[in-house]
Amino acid sequence: MSVNPSFSTIDHAHMAQALRLAAHGLYTARPNPVVGCVIAQGAMMVGEGWHARAGEPHAEIHALEQAGERARGATAYVTLEPCVHMGRTGPCTDALIAAGVTRVVAALRDPFPKVDGAGFEKLRAAGVEVESGLMEAQAQALNRGFLSRMQRGRPWLRVKLATSLDGRTALANGDSKWISGPASRLDVQRWRARAGALMTGAGTVLVDDPQLSVRLGDDTPFLPPLRVVLDPGLATIHRGRVREGGAPTLYVHAPDARVPRGVDADMVAVPVR
Fold first, then answer.
1. For 249, how many CA atoms within 13 A lie in the half-sphere containing its CB?
2. Count of alpha carbons within 13 Å of 228, Cβ hemisphere only?
3. Residues 103-108: what's their mean pLDDT?
4. 136 given a catalytic annotation
5. Does 79 map to a domain?
6. At residue 249, does pLDDT exceed 70?
7. What is the CATH number of the domain that holds 200?
8. How much is the pTM?
């Protein structure tokens, strides 16, 4: 971990803990960003929290509740700029000001249009010292999907491939063999649990008949990602495993495809070039 000389060793330690807390929401917070918060009096942590699910209290609120009166005169370390707008929860800026926090250190400015610097401005207007940019790269890595949606208007894409050392995915005759091991398969499930959607093509569905499900093998909570099948002619519509379980399924097909009735999935027509 590189050290930003603009911040103290104590600042780095508390922000590192806030980032660890934020990671607790990786499987459940979407479409919201994952956020962690630490309230500290010098080197002593007096409150901490993270955002678990959309509509539930934000990380700052959990940390302030734990800190209680010890938040007065304290520093709040938060991985994302505190919100300033009224959504399903109240503004975190108001809560921090009311609690008597005198300094806020943020890893990232929030690009969400209703925040985007306004949280910092409100805190400064109330006399709170505000600094940002501490461990920014680590905070960005936790929220690539959210940041891509806000800044570029599109999702962050990951490609999963199981290949041999010579870059092959199947034998010369087209036969596919299971070449991944237990560790890599578990890693795949963890990446799936972080995703908002899992996408595959008609060819994979016809050959493998996958479920595109998340199988973590324990009681770790997660939000089932949307399953997306790119199938211009809806040739896979009768392969039902991709519609099993509690996750929704979406078929992306050509406008002239014949859409059957009574299929437990959503359909969207997209022109094919």
1. 25
2. 13
3. 97
4. no
5. yes
6. yes
7. 3.40.430.10
8. 0.88
List, in order, residues 6 or more apart from 147 with CB less than 8 Å away. 33, 111, 140, 156
Q: Which amino acid belongs to residue 121? A: E
Q: Are residues 197 and 250 in the same domain?
A: yes
In a domain, 201, yes or no: yes
Structure tokens at 271: 């022109």
Q: Of 48, 60, 131, 136, which residue is the catalytic one?
A: 60
Domain holding 93, by residue range, is 9-152
Contact 74, 102 (CB under 8 A): yes
In angstroms, how far is the first alpha carbon of the chain from the final one? 46
Give me the amino acid identity at 100.
G
How large is the average pLDDT for residues 20-25? 97
CA separation for the pair 99, 114 (Å, rounded): 23
ω into residue 31 within 30 of 0, thus cis?
yes
Helix (H) or strand (E) holding 188: helix 182-194
Inter-residue contact 252 to 228 (CB < 8 Å): yes
Phi, psi of 16 (to 5 degrees): -60, -40
- Say how many CA atoms lie within 13 Å of 224 toward its Cβ: 15
CA-based nearest residue to 89, from 60, 116, 121, 49: 60
* CB contact at 8 A, 81 and 108: yes
